[in-house]
Amino acid sequence: MTPEVFVDVLNNALYMVILMVSIIILPSLAVGLVVSIFQAATSINEQTLSFLPRLIVTLLALMYGGHWMTTTLMDFTIGLYLSIPTVVS
Question: With pLDDT > 70 as the criterion, what percentage of the chain qualifies?
């Protein structure tokens, strides 16, 4: 295995991780920002008001994006397994 192939596989894996995490985290960050602005405007400092909407949005993102994430991860893994003979030889 040459260093170029290793760097290419690592680059693709890191891109996959960033893509998977961003699908889950970005909606949660957006809802957290909206809730924080609402809390600052109304001076309500309730912890469940900030936690519960983010939890619900994160679970919804997992529900709606789970199939796509699983399919993408399986395609990536199958591609890695199929590239083993070309990488080793």
Answer: 100
Q: φ and ψ at 80, to 5 degrees?
A: -65, -45
Domain ranges of the chain: 3-84
pLDDT (tens digit per residue) in 26-64: 999 999 999 989 988 988 888 778 889 999 999 999 999
For residue 71, what are the contacts with CB-CB under 8 A and spacing of at least 6?
none
Q: Determine which helix (DSSP H) or strand (DSSP E) holds 9, and give its type and residue range.
A: helix 3-42
Cα–Cα distance, 39 to 10 (Å, whole number): 42
Non-local (6+) Cβ contacts of 38 within 8 A are 44
Helical packing angle, 3-42 and 47-82, nearest 10°? 170
Return d(Cα 27, Cα 32) in angstroms, integer.
9
Euclidean distance between CA atoms 74 and 20, whole angstroms:
13
